[in-house]
Backbone:
């Protein structure tokens, strides 16, 4: 498939609003009575200590490049912000994130990253066997889930959940059970000046500040790092927004949907992007490509220096410095 | 315009002409795919919009 035009990107923007705003509002109304602290409180508590942030997303390069090993060796002293999908990998490898961010309103899948106490009751779903965010979940799902529950319970009191009002109320219950302190926020869904818009409605309902998301959890974590933690430098790992060269379309996030859209040739739904820093051509799907373009729209407007230390993927240029992780950690201590 | 406004709402007066007719023709296949009922599922994890370089909107804070 060709690189998407502005009009096609707009179609994805509209589709995402349609897919997430209604359920986000429903979850926000269910979560509202349980909101005690928000990211506004966190900002006041931290007072912007000027430390850099390291954002750990869950793209395939996190595992391929063994980024966590490099981080551990460096003795990084800044804030560590993990997305929900990378939390298990971090904990299993001796890194306890300061913050774990979650935003996706999916009612059944996301809680697995926190350890799902109701796994046996979920609808049948092979997502965790196919996904590339945490390969540890590919096999022995029940045993792995039990291990995840134990890990999150063990380290929960040391981690703060940066929890969106859009997520299933079960996630908040799970965080509370694991002893994670919760700081709430809402995604900015639409124009905050629109009196009938979702953003204003949800803000009135929850009183939680609205944050720009970039369309996904990793980008939300980056926004959180510079806009709330006030980190002047944000290093990112696992921000691939794509799949390594040679990946079979079956092992991509949107395979089932691409198969539905293009039954004869779902592979034709993938987009090929050349990364000149690596001299490699990576594969991405329309939604991941949309994420990358959203990020490149946001990056130049941020009051931070952004280093993409993923060492893979398609996110480079336009305010994003593509740099090796060891080199960046040496530069930003 | 895109430097100031990006996302899922329209500006009054509509979008300016960008003269990308050729590009539109080439990309017709993808737009056709999007007419499929599965289109909604192809969206991202969460909605995205950005306005006026503002990363956080907090009416309670802004009005203080």
Residues:
């Amino acid at each position: 498939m060709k690189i998407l035009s502005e009009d096609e990107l707009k179609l994805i923007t509209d589709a995402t609003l349609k897919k997430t705003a209604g359920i986000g509002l429903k979850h926000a109304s269910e979560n509202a009575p349980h909101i005690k602290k928000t990211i506004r409180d966190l900002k006041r508590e931290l007072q912007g200590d000027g430390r850099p942030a390291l954002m750990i997303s869950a793209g395939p390069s996190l595992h391929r490049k063994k980024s966590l090993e490099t981080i551990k060796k460096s003795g990084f002293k800044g804030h560590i912000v993990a997305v929900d999908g990378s939390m298990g990998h971090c904990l299993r490898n001796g890194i306890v994130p300061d913050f774990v961010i979650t935003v996706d309103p999916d009612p059944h899948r996301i809680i697995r990253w926190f350890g799902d106490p109701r796994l046996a009751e979920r609808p049948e779903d092979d997502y965790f066997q196919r996904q590339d965010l945490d390969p540890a979940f590919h096999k022995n799902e029940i045993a792995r889930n039990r291990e995840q529950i134990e890990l999150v319970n063990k380290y929960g009191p040391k981690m703060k959940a940066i929890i969106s009002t859009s997520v299933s109320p079960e996630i908040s219950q799970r965080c509370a059970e694991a002893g994670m302190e919760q700081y709430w926020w809402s995604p900015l869904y639409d124009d905050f000046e629109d009196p009938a818009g979702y953003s204003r409605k949800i803000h009135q309902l929850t009183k939680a500040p609205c944050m720009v998301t970039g369309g996904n959890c990793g980008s939300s974590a980056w926004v959180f790092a510079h806009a709330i933690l006030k980190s002047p430098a944000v290093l990112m790992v696992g921000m691939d927004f794509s799949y390594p060269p040679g990946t079979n379309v079956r092992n991509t996030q949107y395979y089932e949907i691409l198969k539905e859209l293009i039954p004869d040739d779902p592979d034709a739904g993938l987009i090929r992007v050349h990364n000149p820093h690596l001299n490699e051509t990576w594969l991405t799907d329309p939604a991941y490509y949309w994420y990358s373009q959203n990020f490149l729209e946001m990056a130049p407007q941020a009051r931070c220096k952004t280093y993409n230390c993923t060492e893979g993927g398609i996110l480079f240029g336009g305010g994003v410095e593509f740099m090796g992780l060891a080199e960046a950690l040496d530069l930003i201590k | 315009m895109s430097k100031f406004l990006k996302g899922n709402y329209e500006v009054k007066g509509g979008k300016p002409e960008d003269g990308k007719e050729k590009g539109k023709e080439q990309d017709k296949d993808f737009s056709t795919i999007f007419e499929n009922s599965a289109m909604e599922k192809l969206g991202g994890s969460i909605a995205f919009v950005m306005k006026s370089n503002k990363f956080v909107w907090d009416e309670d804070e802004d009005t203080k």
Observations:
- The radius of gyration of chain B is 17 Å.
- The CA atoms of residues 7 and 46 of chain B lie 12 Å apart.
- Confidence is low (pLDDT under 50) at residues 1-5, 9-28 of chain B.
- Strands of chain B lie at 5-6, 50-51, 56-57.
